[in-house]
Amino acid sequence: MKLRPSSLAFVALGLAAAGFAATFLDAAWLRSRDAPQLAERGALAARLGLTDLALFTEARYTRHPSQADLHSAFQDHPVALEHFPTGSLLPPPAALIAHHERLDRKTAASD
Amino acid sequence: MNASIEKQRHLIDFTLASLARRKTKNLGLLLVYTLLVFVLASVSLYTHALRQEAARVLERSPEIILQRMVAGRHDLIPPGYLERIGRIRGVQTIEGRLWGYYYDPVVKANYTFMAPAAEAVRPGTLTVGPAVARSRGLAPGNTISFRAYSGKLFAFTVAGVLPHASELVSADLVLMGEADFRAFFDYPAGHHTDIALSVANPLEVRTVAAKLAAALPDSRPILREEVLRTYASVFDWREGIVLALLSAAIFAFAILAWEKASGLSAEEKREIGILKAIGWETGDVIKMKLWEGGLVSLTAFLAGFVAAYLQVFRLGAPLFEPVLKGWAVLYPRFELVPAIDGLQVATLFFFTVFPYMAAVLVPIWRTAITDPDSAMRS
After folding, report:
1. A1 and A40 inside one domain
2. Which residues have C-beta within 8 Å of that of residue B66, sequence separation ≥ 6?
C-alpha cells in the first residue's frame, strides 16, 4: 500500500515533536547527572566566600565584575578606551544601568 | 467527525503536492527557516544556561561584601572596622577577607591569590586552581616560585589542586596561608582586603547594608543580589550583542519569508482561481494555505530547536561559545548544565511561527475572495 503524503507528513512531524520532547527529558537527565558537580561548585564558592566566576581573568574589573569600582570599566578617566578584549563584551558602567542599590539615599549621614 | 478528518487529510495531501511542484524554492525556504530558528534557539539556550549556572553557583556567596573606598578606589580595611561592624544589629558573622591579584609573567595571566579563613593551608604550601595547574604544569608535591611585588622570590610547595568540577569559580585561584599571604604582598598587620558579612534575617539585608553605609561612610556594601544581577546583565548583554549581529540575517529572512508568503506568484493566483472555479470554497482555500504555513513553520521550529539543543548541550556549542563565554589566558573548562526555560521556548515559538502564519493568511484571503475568473486572468 502506498502511503499518502499526509501520513508521511504526520510521521515526520511526530518524529520532530518526539525529538523536541526528548530535549526536555535529556536536559532533565543531564541536570540530575551533573547535580553533584554543580553542588560542589556552589559549596566551594560558599566555603571560600567567592563572589565571581573565573571567566575573564585579565583585569580586576573583568575578573570580579561585581566587586569592581563603580566607574569601571572606564576607570582611568571618563572617556578612556578599553584596554582588554573582554571589556568590549561587558555591559556599560554600572552607573548607567543601575545594578547597584542606591543605599546612599537611605542613610542619615550627611554628604 | 471522520469525514471532517478525511477532508483535512485531503487538504494536506493537496498542499503537499502543491509544495512539491515548487520543490527547490520551498525546500530552500524550509532550510533557511530552520537555520534561523537554530541560531536564535542556540543563543537563547546557551545564555539561559550560563545565567542559571552563575545564579546557582553564586547563590551561597556572602550576603554582603563591604569594601572601603579611598578617592573612589577600593582600599584596604584598616584595623577597628570589624569591631565597629560587630555592633550593628542583625549581623550574624563577620569575616575579614584576604585576597589580591598577581600577574604571572611566565604565562602572561593574572591569578587570584587568596588566604581563606575557612580552609587551613599549611605555611609554605599552596592549593592551586585547575587552570593554574594546567598552564604551569603543576601537580601536588611540585615546587613553584613567584616574585613578589617587593622583588623578593618566594618558593611554595603545591599541596593540592582544586577539583575540576569547581573550575568555573576556581580556575585562577591560588590559596595560601594567612602568614604567607601577608608576607608575599607585604600586607600591613590587621588590614584586610574587604569584609564578608552574613545577615541572620534575609529580609534585613538591605537595612543592614544601609546601616553599614551610615556607620562607615567610606565603605561600599555590595549585596549578593547585586552580584547575581551583575551576572544576569553580563550574559543578557552578550546575548544582545549576538542578536544584534544576527539582526541583519533575521531581517533578511523576514523579508524572504514575507515575500514568499505574502507576494503570491501568478501561478499560485491561477491555481486558486481554478480551485474556486471547480467548486472550492474560500474557507477551503484558506484552510489549505493554513496547513501549508503550519507544516512549514512547525517543521522548521521543531527541527531548528532540536538541532540547537544538540549543538549547545551535546556538542559543546562550537558555533557561539567564543562570543558568549568570552575568553582569557586562563580559561576555565566547564560543561554547561542544561537549563531550558519554558517561557523562552514559547517566546521563540511565538515569534518564529506566528508571523509566518500571518504572512501566509492575509494575501490568500484577499485572493480567495476575488472572482475566480479575474484571479485566473491576472
Report:
1. yes
2. B77, B81, B85, B194, B195, B196, B197, B212, B216, B219, B220, B221, B222
Residues of the domain holding A78: 60-106
What is the C-alpha separation between B324 and B342, in angstroms, rounded? 21
- Angstrom CA distances, B90 to A49, B203, B218, B219, stand at 19, 10, 21, 18
CB < 8 Å from A in window 273-332 of B: 295, 298-299, 302-303, 305-306, 309, 313-314, 323, 325-332
Could you give the CA distance from residue B231 to residue A44 in angstroms, rounded to a whole number?
A: 18
Q: B241 vs B43, B235, B318, CA distance in Å? A: 10, 10, 18
| Minimum-distance CB partner of B227 among A66, A71, A109 | A66
Are B102 and B186 a contacting pair, CB within 8 Å?
no
Mutation choice for A interface testing from B168, B178, B315, B325 by most A CBs within 10 A: B168
Residue B342: CB atoms within 10 A of its CB come to: 8
A79-107 pLDDT, tens digit per residue, is: 555 566 566 566 655 555 555 566 665 65
Q: Is residue A55 part of a domain?
A: no
Backbone phi, then psi, for B157, in 5-degree steps?
-105, 135
Note the pLDDT tens digit of each residue in B273-283.
Answer: 888 888 888 88
Angle between the N-to-C axes of helices B342-368 and B224-262, in degrees from 0 to 180, rounded to the nearest 10: 20
- Tell if the CB–CB gap between A9 and B295 is shorter than 8 Å: yes
Average pLDDT, chain B: 86
Whether chain B has a CB inside 8 Å of the CB on A87: the answer is no
pLDDT digits (tens, 9 = 90+) for B70-91: 887 889 999 988 888 877 888 8
Residue B26 touches chain A, beta carbons under 8 Å: no
Residue B65's pLDDT is 92
Q: CA of A79, closest CA in chain B: separation in Å?
A: 17
Q: How many domains is chain A built from?
A: 2
Q: How confident is the model at residue A72 (pLDDT cuts 50, 70, 90)?
A: low
Interface of B with A in 143-182 (CB under 8 A): 162-163, 165-173, 175
**Do the domain assignments include residue A111?**
no
CATH class label, B77-192: mainly beta
> For residues B27 and B168, is the Cβ–Cβ distance under 8 A?
no
Cell of B14: 493537496
Neighbours of B137 (CB within 10 A): 8
Per-residue confidence band for B97, with pLDDT thresholds at 50, 70 and 90: very high
